């Protein structure tokens, strides 16, 4: 599968493409063979980290079924805003624990902003390197850091 390495402020990761869709951010991959879609995805990531982009418009693989519904719900959370696992659970008619598991299984963090989903009484987790610290940095980048105080 084609992939392009993106050097973020939090370390490098590969953006992976399959069948014309962004399918994964791979924190371990370091091979780069960018396609036009991958170059565009990296350009948009650069704009995001530079504070110039709030919405991604590259084609993403949201998946199907319940996980796909959770990913679409996360994608709909506006830049700089957050929701709780419970908020998404109520909207989807499913238990918050199931929503949390689906968030943790999100293969395309940042593009599908699972960092914008918080626990009812805490931050919840984040699967990228740096874990919750990276989640906090992303929320601060979006101006949602005030929610953390």
Automatic annotation (TrEMBL):
Gene Ontology annotations of biological process type: DNA alkylation repair; methylation
Reactions performed catalytically: a 4-O-methyl-thymidine in DNA + L-cysteinyl-[protein] = a thymidine in DNA + S-methyl-L-cysteinyl-[protein]; a 6-O-methyl-2'-deoxyguanosine in DNA + L-cysteinyl-[protein] = S-methyl-L-cysteinyl-[protein] + a 2'-deoxyguanosine in DNA
Location relative to the cell: Cytoplasm
Known EC number: 2.1.1.63
Annotated SUPFAM superfamilies: Methylated DNA-protein cysteine methyltransferase domain, Methylated DNA-protein cysteine methyltransferase, C-terminal domain
InterPro entries: MethylDNA_cys_MeTrfase_AS, MethylDNA_cys_MeTrfase_DNA-bd, MethylDNA_cys_MeTrfase_DNAb, MethylG_MeTrfase_N, MGMT, MGMT_N_sf, WH-like_DNA-bd_sf
Protein name per Swiss-Prot or TrEMBL: Methylated-DNA--protein-cysteine methyltransferase
Organism: Pseudorhodobacter antarcticus
């Amino acid at each position: 599968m084609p992939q392009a390495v993106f050097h973020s402020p939090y370390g490098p990761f590969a953006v992976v493409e399959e069948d014309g869709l962004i399918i994964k951010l791979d924190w371990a991959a370091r091979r780069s063979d960018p396609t036009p879609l991958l170059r565009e995805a990296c350009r948009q990531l650069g704009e995001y980290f530079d504070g110039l982009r709030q919405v991604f418009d590259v084609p993403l693989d949201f998946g199907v079924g319940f996980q796909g519904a959770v990913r679409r719900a996360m994608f709909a959370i506006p830049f700089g805003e957050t929701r709780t696992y419970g908020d998404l659970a109520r909207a989807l008619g499913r238990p918050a624990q199931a929503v949390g598991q689906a968030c943790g299984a999100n293969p395309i963090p940042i593009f599908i902003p699972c960092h914008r989903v918080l626990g009812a009484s805490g931050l919840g987790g984040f699967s990228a390197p740096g874990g919750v610290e990276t989640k906090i940095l992303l929320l601060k980048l979006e101006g949602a850091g005030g929610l953390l105080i």
